[in-house]
Amino acid sequence: MESLIHLAQIGSTNNYLRELLTKDPELPAYTIVDTHTQTSGRGQRGNSWESEPGQNISCSILLRPELPHGVTTFDLNRVTSLALFTLLSRYIQPTEIAIKWPNDLLIGRRKIAGILTENEWLGDRLNYTIVGIGLNVKQTQFGDYHPVATSLALEGITFPENYEAWHHSMVREIAQLLQHEMERLADDVEALRKQYHQHLYGYQQEQEYQLPSGERFLGTIQQVLPNGLLEIESATRGKEQFAFKEISTIL
Fold this sequence. Notes:
The chain is an alpha+beta fold. The protein is about 25% helix and about 30% strand. The chain folds into two domains: about 5-200, Bira Bifunctional Protein, Domain 2 (BirA Bifunctional Protein, domain 2), CATH 3.30.930.10; about 205-250, SH3 type barrels, CATH 2.30.30.
């Protein structure tokens, strides 16, 4: 069974888990660090993650992946996205849920979850991956957060009286779903990538995108390449590939 370390408050669950690994390099896969209050949560590429104390799920999970030939570190992002998609589909109609490249989950056009994956290498071998997950649960006010955020509570989900026990069961379930998707990744990465595309926001649909220069254009996602680059085709620009931070989706 996965090991759950729950802390009342911590700066960053990813950082705390990394510190644990310096003390115990043999920490088992699927060890979870969970907190009700994360004071310095981070998103991909240094973005901040806004979360009210005690209202949401903020956790980090240790993976020890062995990447078979052809499997990339971005596939670990796909694995996490699909695990969260499955979890959310137990509460929300699956047709309302979408994975937004590179690291968010949406309900409609509203962000409900974010992912931060951090990899540690030993030479050319992946030693471990820390998957940080933020899931909006009970929070109902998000200020000027962009994209517009939502939560399970705002989507009409109610919670049992023993919220603490429910919270812990949800975190364990995320780890179990991650383990299931990791097994699928080892068995058939192409099937997993296909499912990821099926749930991808804007896949084979024309959407508006914005470049760092401020230029906007209409384009259609053709695919997310194995290395994580987003391939978009537009009438004005042709077919292009973009890395993180090189393009944003207008929601």
